[in-house]
Amino acid sequence: MTIAEVVPSLLSGLEVPGADNTLDLPAARRVVLLLVDGLGHELLREHADHAPFLSGLAGRDISAGFPSSTATSLASIGTGLLSGEHGIVGYTFAVGDEVLNSLTWSRAGDQHHDLRKALVPEVVQPHPTLFERAAAAGVAVSAVAPLAHRGSGLTRAVLRGSWFRGAAGFGDLALGAVAAVGKDRSFCYAYHPDLDTIGHLYRPGSPEWLLQLEFVDALASRIASRLPAGAVLVVTADHGMVTAGERIDFDTEPALWEGVRVIAGEPRVRYLHTGSDEVLEVWREFLGDRAEVLAREDAVRAGWFGPISPLAVDRIGDVVVAMKGSAVVVRSQAEPWLSNLTGFHGSRTRRELAIPLLVHIAQ
């Protein structure tokens, strides 16, 4: 049961051909899917008293898929595929000679270098989206997300086929989502980013994060209270989060450099493009029980990425490093802002992979 199955399960109730309700979600003619960035199942369960509305909804947890990273999960929402098929294999990954930051669609480490022309989003992620399929079947499909996401590379890559409405805040997001399902056979994907941002800056479970969770709970409650009778609100997330423990700094550890041509990913999951077969053993010995370090072939064989396509293979790198516990591999010189964050995600722990799938049916 993964995030890739959420939208197909909802579209089955909207009579979209080929959409299977594998998650057994209620059928409805008007559907709002609210994705709260960073709302891990374990975090919600531990802090249920700060989210009484969400915690009172029927539901269960499912998997975000690997890597447990925003762009990857949003691509799974949009395509119904896991990372090994849609090819958005993380926060940063190599595409040819470039290392793409998939959130900003810019060169990794240089957000001013826009790559939308060099790496055309519709080519980097060429699979038809579920939103395109739904629109072709006559469903009114909308996406409500921050204003800055309009026309972004990631929006073009994974949300194309939806009518985009930019939201400037909580009220705009809530009312935009409700307005988007005013017609029969309508589907709205709504995205809220701030809980994740607060978790990165202050740590999940911090006073700042808990207050933001209360705001998110109110957001979901306000959407639910304004939906027409029979409409369905489904709330999910893209990943959970852990608080950083030990920080291993690639940029100041010469032992980790040897044979590494390109390092991509993010602090909880790293992709190593190598020029030496010794890299795997060096990293395994150095990290010990702080990480799972696998050759790409072994990670693929173990099913980490789901079914694999030629599109994704080279993007994964020759070696995959998935951190365990709370350790992170940072880059203090190449990624100073990212390296100084407090909360992280991307790896394979339950705290990162488990996400809620919650359902409200409007009366």
Automatic annotation (TrEMBL):
One of its GO terms (molecular function) is hydrolase activity. InterPro entries: Alkaline_phosphatase_core_sf, Phosphodiest/P_Trfase. This is Predicted pyrophosphatase or phosphodiesterase, AlkP superfamily. It comes from Lentzea xinjiangensis.
